[in-house]
Amino acid sequence: MTLTLRPISRAEHLAFVDARPSASHLQLPSWGDVKPDWRAESLGWFEADGRLVGVGLVLLRPLPRLKRYLAYLPEGPVIDWTAPDLERWLEPLPAYLKSRGAFSVKMGPPVVARRWNPEAVKAAIADPGAHRLGDVPPTSCEQRALDLADRLRRMGWRRTEPGGEDGFAAGQPRYVCQVPFAGRSLEEIRGGLNQQWRRNIKKAEKAGVKVVRGGAEDLPVFYGLYTETAERDRFLPRPLPYFQRMWSALTAEHPDRMRLYLAHHDGEVLAAATMLVVGGHVWYSYGASTSRRREVRPNNAMQWRMMCDAYELGAHVYDFRGITDTLEESNHLLGLLRFKVGAGGEAVEYVGEWDFPLNRLLHKALDVYLSRR
């Protein structure tokens, strides 16, 4: 029997997520407040007896001059992706969103397809014949992800083609780097750091780098470093009000949902980063640093403090978020991959984002627009 899909309150949505081990921060009710250009709606999946068994945050982005919307569920919805009868969960979604004026639906099932442990990634980077991570044999492969992809295609969904630079898609990253914490002691996690990381942490301690937690009043300091980082690493920075809105929305939902860390040395902030917490999943969200005094290694000190705090919070995973899937030495993002994997992180590939066109003409026009952006 098909499940019933209907709008739910923010309180119902949050209570459902809070009762789970974790869910993506992009599927929290508060995330809709971070995105004022989108109209947010909380959806619930109900059994015939009235039980709420799944939730989703859908963001509706209007087309200019048209009352038609792109419906997007980033890293969601929060449903049972292992269910043998998955069709009854997903079949109501396009129909409901079409009734809300959507011309296309995009979602990102939070299902892992493949993993590469740090040793495998290190070997792949050193292999001159390896050009992309996806071409390298994984340490583990999830059959359920392959099965899910087949089922989605049969239901009419199609995988979004990778876009952006070097594997960074226009939506959420397909490849991420995660440090597993579950079942490990903090000493074991520290032992997973490579030699360079351990050396740099000691160097920062000896130099007197101090890592402290900041508040909303410190966001402009973070932002100054962030814009410097954007110029150095060649990406388009978000505006300061975005981070202020993010802080207000997430901390209003839970006081510890978003944290800000600052690495000080000799009276100057050299690095800063935001951290997000949902249940047992902790994300390093945005990072920023200056090129000055890099020899005192503020980034290593800051990340290790964040990892220690995540452990104290009971995290089962510390998520460094997106990584490039390219292994070319000429790529400026390869250094970021080395940095994250050096912390004991494994490369993780998700099943990707999927589209369900409801109006093929408008969907095609959106594809063309995104490809040229």
From TrEMBL:
Claim: Transmembrane is one of the keywords in the record: no
PROSITE patterns (alphabetical): FEMABX (PS51191)
Classification via InterPro entries: Acyl_CoA_acyltransferase, FEMABX, PG_Glycine_Bridge_Synth
Record family assignment: Belongs to the FemABX family.
Protein name: Peptidoglycan bridge formation glycyltransferase FemA/FemB family protein
Keywords assigned: Acyltransferase, Cell shape, Cell wall biogenesis/degradation, Peptidoglycan synthesis, Transferase
Lineage, highest ranks first: Bacteria, Bacillati, Actinomycetota, Actinomycetes, Kitasatosporales
Domain of life: Bacteria
